[in-house]
């Protein structure tokens, strides 16, 4: 996890500078072409039976470009969707991504059945799909997704050299009174992502060492729990447009965090399969519901000139929170995964997020 997520957290701010300079449609085009090329190289590495570190490096490169493209998607969405429909669009986007990932997993399973467990063939199919995505991006006009080319921009070397100043400008942009809500939402979402990551590690430990007796049974239970959590993601995609439309995105974050604060210990402290599955659904729903609301708040509040940097920073916070949660959970969890202090700590964090966001909304 750290190998795949943390390196992008270092280069993410620089990626934001590029997203605010380059045509985002071109980012989709060349980003997918680059992913197709790197996936093809990865397939060759698999066939060559190279050392594991080379495969990790290849996976890191593909994942890094993937995060870059996704940050570009979030930055570009307000260019093609009315503000009133951003909540719906942010609900549909991750749902479509999850459906595509599920279909991709099924396709990989079929390819392995047909071609005798050929990992290289699966990766080559992925390369072909990346190529199709690049071709699909050509249907959009170059200027459609921004940023505005009329603005005077410094040379790339100057822009990269001034990344720190750019990030400081982005922070000041968020700190402006009319955009402070976006800063609060980003902070709340990062903390909720931390909580979700910690509970995911605890769930993994419980499935393997406490609730089952064999590795296969543990993997089966973990797969079921992840599927139930995914169902919570889908439920959030359906429920959030309605709830955020009536309460507002900020208050919907309050509801999600408060629900998690109350239900997470109720379902987590018994350390039993049934309640844990229910808890996985609740955390999937509340985490994704809060993320959709956060995306909407940030997209509506941040100017187009800053969206690339802000969403790259958002992605960095998201990744660091998740990996940090895994590290903290690993330190706090006993061998069997049963940790009352961890469950209580996570509930307190959820409660603090709900309280802070509620106070901000009242102000």
UniProtKB/TrEMBL annotation:
Cited InterPro entries: MFS, MFS_trans_sf
Alphabetical UniProt keywords: Cell membrane, Membrane, Transmembrane, Transmembrane helix
Localization per record: Cell membrane
GO cellular component, one term: plasma membrane
Gene Ontology MF term list: transmembrane transporter activity
Membrane topology: Multi-pass membrane protein
Pfam families the UniProt entry points to: MFS_1
Transmembrane spans: 27-47, 53-75, 96-115, 121-141, 182-206, 218-240, 277-298, 310-333, 339-360
Protein name according to UniProt: MFS transporter
Organism this protein belongs to: Streptomyces haneummycinicus
Native organism taxonomy: Bacteria, Bacillati, Actinomycetota, Actinomycetes, Kitasatosporales
């Amino acid at each position: 996890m750290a190998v795949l997520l943390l390196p992008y957290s270092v280069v993410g701010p620089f990626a934001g500078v590029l997203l605010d300079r380059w045509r985002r449609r071109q980012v989709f085009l060349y980003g997918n072409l680059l992913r197709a090329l790197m996936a093809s190289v990865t397939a060759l590495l698999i066939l060559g039976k190279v050392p594991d570190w080379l495969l990790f490096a290849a996976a890191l490169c593909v994942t890094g470009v993937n995060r870059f493209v996704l940050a570009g998607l979030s930055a570009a969405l307000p260019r093609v969707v009315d503000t009133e429909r951003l909540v719906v669009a942010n609900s549909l986007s991750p749902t479509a991504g999850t459906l595509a990932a599920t279909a991709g997993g099924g396709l990989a399973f079929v390819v392995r059945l047909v071609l005798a467990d050929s990992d290289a063939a699966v990766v080559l199919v992925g390369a072909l799909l990346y190529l199709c995505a690049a071709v699909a991006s050509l249907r959009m006009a170059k200027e459609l997704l921004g940023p505005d080319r009329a603005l005077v921009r410094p040379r790339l070397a100057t822009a990269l050299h001034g990344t720190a100043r750019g990030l400081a400008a982005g922070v000041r942009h968020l700190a402006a009174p009319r955009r402070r809500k976006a800063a609060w939402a980003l902070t709340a979402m990062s903390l909720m992502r931390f909580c979700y990551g910690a509970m995911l590690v605890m769930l993994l430990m419980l499935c393997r060492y406490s609730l089952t007796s064999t590795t296969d049974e543990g993997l089966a239970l973990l797969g079921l729990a992840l599927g139930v959590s995914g169902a919570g993601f889908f439920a959030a995609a359906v429920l959030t447009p309605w709830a955020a439309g009536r309460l507002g995105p900020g208050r919907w974050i309050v509801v999600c965090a408060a629900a998690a604060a109350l239900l997470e210990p109720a379902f987590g402290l018994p350390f039993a399969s049934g309640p844990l599955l229910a808890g996985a659904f609740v955390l999937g729903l509340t985490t994704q519901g809060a993320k959709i609301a956060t995306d909407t708040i940030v997209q509506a509040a941040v100017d187009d000139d800053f969206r690339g940097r802000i969403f790259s920073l958002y992605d960095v916070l998201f990744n660091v929170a998740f990996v940090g949660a895994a590290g903290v959970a690993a330190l706090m969890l006993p061998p069997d995964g049963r940790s009352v202090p961890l469950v209580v700590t996570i509930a307190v964090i959820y409660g603090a997020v709900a309280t802070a966001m509620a106070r901000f909304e009242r102000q």
